[in-house]
Structure formats: C-alpha cells, structure tokens
Amino acid sequence: MNRKPAYANFCPAMNRRMPPQIELLPDGRYRRRETPVATRILRWALVIALVAGSLAVGAFFLWFALMLLPVAIIAGVVAWLAFRYRLWRSTRQPRW
Fold first, then answer.
1. Residue 13 in 3-state DSSP?
2. Is the distance from CB of 22 to CB of 30 less than 8 angstroms?
C-alpha cells in the first residue's frame, strides 16, 4: 500500500530534496531562525556608519559655532563701544 503519488516522477530532482523542517515550540509558536552572518554584519556596519555620521555632523556644527564665537564677541564689543561713545557724546554737547 506504499504507493507513490502520480506526480512523483514529474521532477526526480525534487524527490531527492530534503523536506523543510518546521521547528515548533511546545506551546505552538514557531522557533525564530537565526539571521545569516552577512545580515548581522550589514546591520552593525549600518549602525556604525550612522553613529560616525552623527558624530561628524555634530563636530561640524561645533566647529561652526566655535568659529562664530569670536565674531559674536567682537560684534558685542563694537556695539558696546558705540553705545558708550554715544553716551559720552550726548553728555558733552548741550541740549537745545
């Protein structure tokens, strides 16, 4: 009674192939497959690239802010001196 189905001789290569293994846990859930090594390497490479890119952008903004700091200080000193000059000049001239 061990009869082969009609399609058994249709593709002989398929007959030699191992059937897929389905790993069920005792509670009825499927066991998660382990991800391939190449996928894990790619994920870590992407994480490292994102962290490096974030650090590069942060370093650029810090450099930009540090380059603007002397300009802002000089502009503040010039504004303060102009204000003091205007005060000095207003006290020396008589008001009409």
1. helix
2. yes
Tokens at residue 25, please? 């846990």
pTM of the predicted model over 0.70: no
What is the Cα–Cα distance from 15 to 12, expressed in whole angstroms?
5
Amino acid sitting at position 7: Y
Q: What is the SS3 assignment for 5? A: coil
Domain boundaries along the sequence of the chain = 13-92
Contact 23, 31 (CB under 8 A): yes
Centroid of chain to Cα 2: 59
What digits encode the pLDDT tens for the residues 43-63?
999 999 999 999 999 999 999
Return left, alpha or beta for 74; rule: phi > 0 is left, psi -120 to 50 is alpha, else beta: alpha
SS3 23: coil
